[in-house]
């Protein structure tokens, strides 16, 4: 691993929302050959985003520096994942980075007992809206697999530890996309 790889990550979910972290010098980035996917593992009680290789896909996100190459805090936050070296595209060209992904052998499809938290999805989409606008939010939904997973509507009492307060427009964007996907929404 090079020094550059040791110091940057590519965030594709909640790490796109700068309000959920304080990593410096975050910048818009694109990761070719990967797709987001909703997964569950025995390590977490809820479903969460991961990535898997997909040569026909590219996903937007943020690349950010890990100060001093100290991965401890981020590795603790992303404890169900393994880091993988990748090359993200940023304004200045290619940037060696690390992406967190659940190993395929450990990834399971989300179930009603392990749903996607709407408060988590809200934080993710809010990040895409802030960074990439409405087109970026639409692209997030289009480049993410697993929308047949159940979604627990915890918006009024968020269970996600880094939940964010949404604007009415943010909530309407999420709700409209889920409606268009015919998502299965579970009530608490």
Overview features:
188 residues, 9 strands, 6-stranded mixed β-sheet, single chain, globular, 26% helix, alpha/beta, 3-stranded parallel β-sheet
Structure commentary:
The protein has helices at residues 3-7, 72-77, 118-142, 168-180, and strands spanning 8-11, 27-39, 48-65, 82-90, 93-101, 116-117, 144-145, 151-152, 185-186. With 188 residues, the protein is α/β, with parallel strands linked by helices. A 6-stranded mixed sheet has the order 4-5-1-3-2-7. A 3-stranded parallel sheet has the order 6-8-9. A hairpin with an 8-residue loop joins strand 2 (27-39) and strand 3 (48-65). The longest helix has 25 residues, at 118-142.
Separation, N- and C-terminal Cα atoms: 44 Å
If you compute it from the alpha carbons, what radius of gyration comes out, rounded to the nearest whole angstrom? 16 Å
Q: Give, in order, the helices and strands.
A: HEEEHEEEHEEHE
Can you give the helix content as a percent range? 25-40%
- The global form is globular
Q: Tell me the strand order in the biggest sheet.
A: 4-5-1-3-2-7
Specify the structural class.
alpha/beta
Mean pLDDT: 92
State the total count of DSSP E strands.
9
Uncertain segments are 1-5
Which helices and strands appear, and what pairs or packs with what?
Blueprint: H1 3-7, E1 8-11, E2 27-39, E3 48-65, H2 72-77, E4 82-90, E5 93-101, E6 116-117, H3 118-142, E7 144-145, E8 151-152, H4 168-180, E9 185-186
Helix pairs in contact: 3-4
Provide a compact summary of the structure.
With 188 residues, the chain is α/β, with parallel strands linked by helices. The chain has helices at 3-7, 72-77, 118-142, 168-180, and strands spanning 8-11, 27-39, 48-65, 82-90, 93-101, 116-117, 144-145, 151-152, 185-186.
